[in-house]
């Protein structure tokens, strides 16, 4: 295996992006920031991979317009996934492993505010037995939350604690679209939205984009003084039917964490949990103890741009390695209804 | 803007059996490798990955395993008012099924509650053929007879999504220009190429295009196609010509119609001019230009547009 590290990361998150759904104009400054961090130019990037969805943009081949932001003359080596950019990062990591390239830039973008996000996302469900009912993502997460409440795995106060900690931490995150802690009591006094979930239990609809630069060996050391070396990365998926898996646990997150070498010694975890109870599910699936700092960025409850929020978790975790505040971190991304698909990326710093 | 499409899907032996059951007001489960009964029946066992081949007819009653209250329903959901989505374990089944429950308020539903199906009068073989209601113990209503005898082999699932589009700053100035009868492009500061409509970034250099350039409404046909095929929403009777017009001063061609000339006479290099609609019909749209028509000038040399094909 080649040593591959995260060496660059830039993001933008906002409530409502006033621009086109192809978001090329938002990606230009993000890519410029990646060049500045690494000291590289377009020609130094061996492979490009993006994550986005036409269902969000409401137009076909929207990722092709986004490529304008790269500038493709001479032509670039490029690919796309209809998933969060964390999976684009996985593809780029594999591409570097093949030895074909030494560097890659992955990016994700999505203008969720153009449509009704919780409705648009019903199109990721089984089209025969689910989509005709238009089961919105918030309802599906709420069904999952109640299963855990009824089973005594968590209570409403535990959900409010996750929210309070996340929104308090989000005060320090300039990209948070929702921030400001209060108290468990105050949060529980707010009305239900999708009983048993309140609005603050659900990630805010967010527009945004992000980019991550990967590099192998000496190229990584040349671009970053303390690269975040990827020591384990894996992803896994659970079945299509909600009824045939235990929604109070996440088998796929557990398998991904195991395949990534486990999380022993991890000091900081950035978990992509778009609903408060999902952080509790993930924490247990990834085997993270009480001594692990969870989502210091505020996590997805503070901002959750579709198709980049997972990659942002990896970028935020990598930043803790770069600044020397941690030696071992994990970034996690999820996709699909009720934590169906999960990706785990373990990174370490070396002195 | 609304993007809509009706997907026609074949159902296969497992989902087809399940949907045929719903059409006939019967809930059909499938037996998994470990003996459990799943509703809906999956085509393949989620653990052993073996095909599911054994079906079990079940009653149309069950128990709420989990529920949530949909306080603000979205378009297409089964009830046009606040309702509950629930995971319902059908009597005799072992895995819960996602369905809608028609109750008046979240106070009228709880985990463990008994429910029964309320079948639609006209059923097509769809999960929308029924919703669940509280089972008050009274004799269930008898469902109307099935509407067909053939198995449900195909279903149509309409998908319709609404989008609210915002124009980028570059697109905004383009559309505002059109409202004044002007065609505005933008020049890349690096390669000096002029793009119309302007884009968020130069696709060659990946830098924002900043300098605005007003273009002529006269140009050259670089390539074209004759539309012979009728399609839904077509506004002109075929045959007609859709072409790429390279406006004088631009480096990228604009797609538009070529009319006022028989389709077979349109050619590469032909010089054309925009025919604007009457001014009182203008909006912020490229449709302010009705079409392009020949200017009568001699054709442009191939060399003058060969790099723009």
From TrEMBL, chain A:
InterPro entries: Thiolase, Thiolase-like. Gene3D superfamilies: 3.40.47.10. Transmembrane segments: none annotated. It comes from the Bacteria. GO terms for molecular function: acyltransferase activity, transferring groups other than amino-acyl groups. PANTHER family: ACETYL-COA C-ACETYLTRANSFERASE (PTHR42870), NON-SPECIFIC LIPID-TRANSFER PROTEIN-LIKE 2 (PTHR42870:SF1). This is Lipid-transfer protein. It comes from Nocardioides luteus.
């Amino acid at each position: 295996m080649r040593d591959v590290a995260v060496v660059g990361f830039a993001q933008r998150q906002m409530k409502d992006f006033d621009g086109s759904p192809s978001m090329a104009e938002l990606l230009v400054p993000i890519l410029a920031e990646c060049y500045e961090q690494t000291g590289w130019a377009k020609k130094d990037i061996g492979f490009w991979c993006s994550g986005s969805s036409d269902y969000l943009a409401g137009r076909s081949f929207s990722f092709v317009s986004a490529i304008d932001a790269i500038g493709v003359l001479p032509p670039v080596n490029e690919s796309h996934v209809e998933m969060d950019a964390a999976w684009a990062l996985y593809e780029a990591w594999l591409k570097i492993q093949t030895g074909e390239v030494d560097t890659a830039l992955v990016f994700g973008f999505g203008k969720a505010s153009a449509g009704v996000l919780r409705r648009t996302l019903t199109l990721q469900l089984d089209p025969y037995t689910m989509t005709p009912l238009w089961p919105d993502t918030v309802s599906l997460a709420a069904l999952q939350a109640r299963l855990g409440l009824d089973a005594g795995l968590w209570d409403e106060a535990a959900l409010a604690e996750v929210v309070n900690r996340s929104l308090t931490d989000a005060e320090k995150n300039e990209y948070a679209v929702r921030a400001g802690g209060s108290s468990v009591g105050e949060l529980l006094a707010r009305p239900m939205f999708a009983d048993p979930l309140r609005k603050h239990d659900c990630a805010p609809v967010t527009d945004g984009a992000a980019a991550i630069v990967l590099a192998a060996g000496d190229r990584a050391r040349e671009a970053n003084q303390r690269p975040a070396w990827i020591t384990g990365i894996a992803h896994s998926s659970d079945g299509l039917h909600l009824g045939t898996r235990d929604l109070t646990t996440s088998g796929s997150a557990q398998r991904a964490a195991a395949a990534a070498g486990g999380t022993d010694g991890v000091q900081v975890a950035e978990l992509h949990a778009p609903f408060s109870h999902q952080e509790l599910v993930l924490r247990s699936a990834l085997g993270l103890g009480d001594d692990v700092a969870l989502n210091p960025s505020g996590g997805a409850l503070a901002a959750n741009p579709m198709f980049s929020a997972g990659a942002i978790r990896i970028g935020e975790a990598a930043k803790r390695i770069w600044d020397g505040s941690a030696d071992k971190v994990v970034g996690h991304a999820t996709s699909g209804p009720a934590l169906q698909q999960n990706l785990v990326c373990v990174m370490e710093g070396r002195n | 803007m609304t993007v809509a499409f009706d997907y026609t899907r074949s159902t296969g032996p497992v989902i087809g059996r399940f949907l045929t059951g719903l059409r006939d007001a019967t809930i059909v489960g499938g037996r998994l490798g470990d003996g459990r009964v799943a509703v809906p029946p999956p085509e393949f066992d989620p653990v052993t990955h073996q095909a599911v081949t054994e079906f079990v007819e079940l009653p149309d009653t069950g128990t709420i395993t989990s529920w949530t209250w949909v306080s603000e329903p979205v378009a297409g959901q089964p009830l046009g008012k606040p309702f509950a989505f629930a995971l319902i374990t059908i009597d005799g089944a072992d895995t819960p099924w996602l369905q809608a429950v028609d109750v008046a308020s979240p106070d009228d539903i709880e985990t463990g509650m008994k429910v029964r199906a309320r079948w639609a009068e006209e059923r097509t073989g769809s999960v929308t053929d029924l919703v669940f209601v509280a089972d008050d113990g009274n004799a269930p209503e008898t469902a109307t007879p099935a509407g067909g005898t053939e198995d449900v082999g195909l279903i149509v699932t309409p998908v319709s999504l609404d989008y609210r589009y915002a124009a980028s700053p570059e697109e905004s100035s383009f559309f505002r220009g059109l409202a004044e009868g002007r065609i505005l492009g933008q020049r890349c500061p690096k390669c000096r190429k002029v793009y119309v409509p302007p884009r968020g970034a130069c696709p060659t250099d990946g830098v924002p295009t900043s300098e605005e350039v007003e273009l002529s409404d006269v140009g050259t046909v670089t390539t074209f196609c004759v539309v012979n095929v009728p399609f839904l929403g077509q506004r002109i009777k075929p045959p007609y010509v859709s072409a790429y017009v390279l406006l004088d001063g631009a480096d990228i061609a604009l797609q538009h119609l070529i009319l006022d000339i028989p389709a077979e006479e349109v050619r590469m290099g032909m010089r054309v001019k925009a025919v604007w609609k009457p001014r009182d019909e203008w909006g912020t749209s490229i449709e302010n230009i009705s079409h392009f028509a020949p200017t009568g000038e001699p054709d442009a040399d191939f060399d003058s547009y060969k790099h723009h094909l």
